[in-house]
Inverse folding.
């Protein structure tokens, strides 16, 4: 240190009044009294760079600048303003000239001060409320849409815009009847659609509330249980063995350490070990983890990177053990220490501790993962189909209007006169009849009613359009446990080794099991419960046993061990994979052979087998026997699989069990035994086309990981199959999202449910097959309505266009709007119709729909022209005594159009009473219009029509409907039409499949050759060869 530096520091320490600039100024304004006053006062909110005194010395200004910047940074953290770059904006739909900033939820950080919550007191309720207002509820599901915005949405869309244009045109023509009725049609459709969707949504919300996660939280100094969705950042939560972590959080202390004295000591010790920077010794081989009867493990040393290499850090005892397999795929539970982060949806396997919530669901690790697979999906297939139909009908309206206007010019029809027969009136009529205003309402209502029906059967449809995808599924990839099987493990005929007491073997098996009855895994649970049938084993287990050390299952050693003691004798009990136990005990050769044969026999019979061994007082290990376990197929699974086959749905089993067990399960279910190890998908060495053939022909795959599920779905979709996939873990989310219909099974994680289209709350394959049937019924209703509605549009467009051009007449606009109203009013009941379900996967086949609809429209238009032609006869044609031409045409059009829905719905089932009553009520109302001449305009007898004429019109309309039904039946029997527009499933594209598979197997390798960068491709095979050569060179 230089003399001058030492002098300055000495004088500053002695509080000498001297600075570089200006007399009588302290170097740092270092008066203790002034410093205390400044700290107590806090930063002035008006402080900024301009408030720094220009006359102050440079160090005073520098310190003032530091204070100002510190204040700004603290304010920034408190506000959570961590956005970088330019703020994104969007235009308001109701004011497109305005731009408003877009809030980015995912970029919102929790202010650090929020995490300094008193562990024993927790948050106050008002703090929790304000934080929830900022970060929302602790859940992955998107917030429910505002009901008002949802209702307004039913007035938006190309078809509805046309009707809204018709409203303006009717107002311009001062046709107040049309104006009011069109508004009524729009409002009715919007209300019915909104109400049905809301009702279905309410049922789904009630079901979701029943599966809501609970958490123990500290609020106001008290512990109590509440729904996990109510948690906010900074909440203190108690987590213990058997519970699910309700949000991302940091471990504060073990549950017994109420004042955090132990935790603080551990953190101080850890920091001290970091500062010492001791070199870490070589890592020991992976041995058995240790634990005691208490929740805390032995102190653990970990390695962290230091400036001179890895340093050993004393992390203290483990206070928690969590299962992160749903996130990372690790089978072994992970130990967590004071200060470690635990993740949302992971399961607690051991321990009890306090944690502080650092991130709620949307900002959590799992939430960010779910956002990657759920965001930015664009319009679905159903929306695209509806958009195509609506756009085509709009184009047809424009074409028909052009024809009418050209004909009107030749006939000299004026633009706005006379009142009931001018070009603007013609335009209004075509705007009303040309687009099916009820299409969005009826399709939404049909799907919403179906979704509510499925919800009552424990199936939550998260997106209504998923119903269409489910109806078209032809391959269902399902897991085994809980779906095909009953998920009820049972021990089947335990096999003891020669000379071993069966009761002692079962006692050792229980000793080598977890004893936490709150959170027993299925294998430990069935092992323990088995003793109910073995009273002698229960006697052996009574009194005197003390557990000194319990080691949970380790995927490396593949066994569970427990060090126990009774009456002064020490035992080590082991339970695990048969081969692992065999390696541990090393019995004589003939015993090994007998043991292996029995193990293979159990595997062939579909049993999951565990080996049991024991060691007494550190002596030689003794092989006690085998414990075979069986998860029986559900009683209805075989029948359900056969039913799925009849429905054209092929079931593929994807399971994590061994191949032998998977094959045996398939045999019992008559599912087919072409079951293979899933590793062949990646390392099989087949060409791309061969791999696709392999996946398509296989009946199932064993030892499946989440990435294999994704591959299976992708390859099946490449072949044109519509695939449904079941899943339950966080790492299943990508494959659920990729599938045409992702199904989250009972007990699935929040991330899986968020990515899935349908969530099942009940186990079993029958629930899924029932959902497919219901989806096909819903699809049948929608398809029947669409064929019906397109035919109606074409019917009036063809008739009225020709009538305007040939006769220069039309049906009055006032009557036209009631025809449109009746068409939509009656057929809303189609949502409740008793529809059949198809025996194969369904799809829209739009070319077939358009051909059939056009033919039906021509038949209806021909029938209306025939009726109009009879009215030119001298005897009055269909008129018996008297009648209005307008009202007769109105009644015939109403009847034939209403009855057409009975044709398009098909003859397989009788129509529901709701549909029959709705159509009958509309027909009676239309007949009353005709009888009393309502809105008929100037006509003889005030537009009235005699009853006999009305009956004749009914009979004539029935005849037209019968002809339409016969033609519809014949058209559906034509093979060419039946195959028209069908997608080709199972079609292979060898070149494309080979190219994509080979591309996936390539790795871009970067090397440095002198001063140049060299890039080359390397295949997986090359990597294995190079790796083997490298190992050989080392040895």
């Amino acid at each position: 240190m230089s003399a001058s530096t030492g002098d300055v520091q000495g004088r500053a320490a002695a509080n000498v009044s001297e600075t570089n600039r200006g007399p009588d100024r302290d170097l740092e304004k270092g008066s203790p009294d002034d410093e205390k006053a400044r700290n107590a006062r806090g930063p002035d909110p008006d402080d900024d760079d301009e408030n720094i005194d220009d006359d102050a010395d440079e160090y005073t200004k520098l310190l003032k600048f530091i204070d100002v910047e510190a204040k700004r940074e603290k304010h920034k953290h408190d506000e959570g303003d961590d956005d970088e770059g330019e703020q994104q904006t969007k235009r308001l739909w109701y004011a497109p000239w305005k731009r408003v900033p877009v809030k980015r939820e995912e970029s919102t950080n929790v202010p650090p001060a929020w995490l300094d919550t008193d562990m024993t007191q927790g948050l106050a309720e008002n703090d929790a409320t304000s934080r929830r207002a900022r970060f929302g509820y602790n859940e992955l599901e998107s917030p429910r849409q505002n009901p008002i915005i949802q209702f307004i949405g039913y007035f938006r869309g190309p078809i509805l815009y046309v009707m809204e244009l018709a409203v303006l045109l009717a107002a311009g023509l001062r046709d107040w009847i049309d104006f009011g009725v069109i508004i009524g049609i729009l409002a009715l459709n919007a209300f019915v659609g909104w109400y049905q969707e809301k009702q279905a949504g309410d049922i789904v919300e009630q079901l979701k509330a029943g599966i809501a996660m609970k958490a123990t939280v500290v609020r106001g100094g008290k512990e109590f249980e509440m729904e996990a969705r109510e948690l906010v950042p900074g909440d203190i939560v108690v987590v213990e063995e058997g519970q699910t972590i309700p949000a991302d959080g940091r471990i504060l202390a073990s549950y017994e350490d109420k004042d955090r004295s132990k935790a603080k000591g551990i953190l101080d010790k850890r920091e001290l070990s970091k500062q010492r920077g001791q070199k870490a010794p070589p890592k020991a081989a992976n041995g058995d983890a240790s634990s005691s009867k208490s929740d805390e493990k032995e102190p653990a040393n970990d390695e962290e990177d230091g400036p001179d290499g890895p340093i050993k850090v004393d992390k203290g005892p483990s206070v928690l053990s969590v299962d992160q397999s749903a996130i990372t795929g690790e089978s072994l539970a992970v130990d967590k220490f004071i200060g470690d982060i635990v993740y949302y949806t992971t399961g607690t396997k051991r321990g009890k501790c306090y944690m502080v919530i650092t991130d709620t669901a949307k900002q959590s690790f799992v939430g960010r993962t779910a956002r990657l697979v759920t965001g930015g999906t664009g319009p679905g297939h159903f929306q695209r189909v509806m958009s195509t139909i609506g756009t085509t009908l709009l184009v047809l309206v424009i074409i028909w209007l052009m024809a009418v206007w050209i004909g009107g010019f030749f006939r000299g029809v004026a633009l706005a006169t006379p009142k009931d027969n001018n070009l603007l009136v013609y335009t209004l009529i075509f705007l009303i009849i040309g687009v099916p205003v009820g299409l969005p309402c009826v399709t939404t209502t049909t799907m919403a009613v179906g979704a509510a029906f499925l919800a009552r059967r424990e199936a939550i449809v998260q997106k209504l359009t998923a119903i269409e995808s489910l109806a078209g599924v032809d391959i269902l990839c399902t897991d085994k446990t809980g779906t095909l099987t009953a998920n009820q493990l049972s021990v089947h005929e335990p096999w003891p080794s020669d000379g071993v007491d069966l009761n002692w073997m079962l006692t050792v098996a229980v000793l080598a099991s977890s004893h936490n009855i709150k959170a027993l895994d299925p294998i430990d649970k069935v092992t323990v419960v088995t003793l109910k049938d073995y009273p002698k084993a229960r006697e052996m287990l009574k009194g005197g046993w003390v557990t000194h050390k319990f080691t949970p299952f380790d995927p490396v050693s593949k066994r569970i061990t427990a060090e126990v003691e009774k009456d002064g004798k020490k035992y080590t009990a082991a339970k695990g994979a048969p081969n692992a136990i065999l390696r541990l005990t090393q019995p004589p050769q003939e015993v090994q052979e007998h043991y292996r044969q029995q193990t293979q026999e159990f595997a062939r019979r579909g049993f999951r087998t565990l080996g049991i061994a024991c060691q007494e007082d550190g002596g030689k290990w003794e092989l006690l026997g085998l414990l075979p376990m069986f998860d029986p197929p559900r009683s209805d699974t075989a029948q359900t699989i056969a039913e799925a086959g009849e429905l054209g749905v092929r079931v593929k089993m994807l399971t994590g069990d061994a191949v032998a067990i998977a094959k045996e399960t398939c045999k019992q279910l008559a599912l087919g035994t072409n079951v293979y190890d899933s590793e062949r998908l990646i390392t099989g060495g087949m060409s791309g086309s061969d791999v696709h053939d392999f996946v398509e022909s296989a009946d199932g795959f064993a030892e499946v990981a989440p990435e294999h599920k994704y591959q299976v779905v992708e390859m099946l979709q490449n072949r044109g199959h519509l695939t449904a996939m079941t899943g339950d873990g966080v790492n299943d989310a990508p494959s659920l999202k990729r599938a045409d219909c992702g199904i989250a099974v009972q007990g699935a994680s929040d991330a899986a449910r968020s990515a899935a289209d349908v969530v099942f709350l009940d186990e079993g394959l029958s629930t899924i097959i029932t959902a497919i049937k219901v989806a096909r019924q819903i699809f049948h209703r929608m398809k029947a309505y669409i064929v019906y509605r397109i035919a109606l549009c074409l019917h009036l467009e063809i008739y009225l266009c020709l009538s305007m051009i040939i006769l220069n007449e039309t049906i009055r606009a006032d009557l036209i709007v009631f025809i449109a109203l009746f068409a939509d009013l009656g057929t809303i009941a189609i949502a409740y119709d008793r529809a059949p379900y198809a025996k194969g996967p369904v799809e829209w086949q739009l070319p077939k729909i358009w051909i059939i609809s056009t033919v039906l429209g021509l038949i209806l238009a021909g029938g209306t022209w025939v009726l109009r032609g009879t009215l030119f006869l001298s005897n009055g044609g269909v008129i018996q005594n008297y009648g209005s031409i307008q009202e007769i045409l109105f009644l015939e059009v109403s009847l034939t159009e209403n009855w057409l829905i009975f044709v398009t719905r098909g003859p397989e089932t009788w129509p529901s009473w709701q549909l029959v009553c709705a159509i009958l009520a509309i027909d009676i109302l239309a007949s009353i219009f005709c009888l009393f001449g309502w809105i008929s305009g100037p006509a003889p007898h005030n537009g009235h029509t005699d009853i006999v004429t009305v009956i004749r019109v009914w009979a004539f309309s029935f005849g037209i409907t019968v002809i339409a039904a016969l033609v519809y039946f014949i058209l559906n029997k034509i093979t060419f039409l039946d195959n028209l527009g069908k997608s080709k499933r199972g079609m292979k594209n060898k070149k494309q499949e080979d190219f994509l598979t080979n591309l996936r197997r390539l790795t871009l390798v970067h090397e440095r050759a002198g001063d140049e960068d060299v890039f080359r491709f390397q295949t997986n095979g090359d990597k294995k060869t190079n790796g083997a050569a490298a190992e050989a060179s080392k040895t």
